[in-house]
Amino acid sequence: MAKLRDCLPRLMLTLRSLLFWSLVYCYCGLCASIHLLKLLWSLGKGPAQTFRRPAREHPPACLSDPSLGTHCYVRIKDSGLRFHYVAAGERGKPLMLLLHGFPEFWYSWRYQLREFKSEYRVVALDLRGYGETDAPIHRENYKLDCLITDIKDILDSLGYSKCVLIGHDWGGMIAWLIAICYPEMVMKLIVINFPHPNVFTEYILRHPAQLFKSSYYYFFQIPWFPEFMFSINDFKVLKHLFTSHSTGIGRKGCQLTTEDLEAYIYVFSQPGALSGPINYYRNIFSCLPLKHHMVSTPTLLLWGENDAFMEVEMAEVTKIYVKNYFRLTILSEASHWLQQDQPDIVNKLIWTFLKEETRKKD
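That's the BTB domain containing 8 sequence above. Prediction below.
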């Protein structure tokens, strides 16, 4: 009987793992079937339109706007990868490092680059596999360990030992992990529309609504097909994400201009530009949940209440993982793309958080 009691926890862990991976692959198959039907419907309506993709040889002018900062590159010694970033503000000022989400790139921080350069050296990075940053071919090169190490190495290469770290969506996930693994590197942590990673993994298994909202996580496990579906109809899916009533920026938000939208399409229409970003998702299930999970850095979590991809309840639960000062602000009628949707409010909230004295929880 004692031996059975000893084996029971391991058995339950094995069964839970088996159930989890069964769920992943079953849902993956379901998502693939739905997208295949969408493809067949599109082909039925007009095959020529489905595969139409105008050539985009030159970037839109907004990507070289001097008011946003200077385009720079840094090569990391250990990985050999070259990273692209846009920097605003004088060298020597405290570093503010901005990490974008999917499907975005440095340009999603255009409002923050202009706003915070007066007091910070603001650096908006193209993450590994995005934009002008190098994109390793193999899926294994996009594991969380690699993404965390990238940020640590970039900080060293820029000549800083610590920064104000701001992340949105996938950048938020990475920002949480940096604060957990290298707390000495983060003066203050600001995350936009992404809960603590452990909250996400626990919540998604217990709430079918969030499982449905995260269906793209499962669809992205399939090789090459997600990249193909993103590109058909001249990147209609990408346009839909930012502009549709269901997932896009809200009616009262700062809408993307035609040139802004063209900037996104230009970046992701380059050869192989989607594989790196989607490979982030292809590694995520093998990396979560985390073994170490407490955050000891003063933290601000900003959340758009109308986020189509993340349930707002996860934001509330996140505070149990932060041992230091924690503030949550939920913006009504704001979308997932919060720093672009409501830039004035977001910038004001960030300024307030940066200037106030924060004391550690007892």
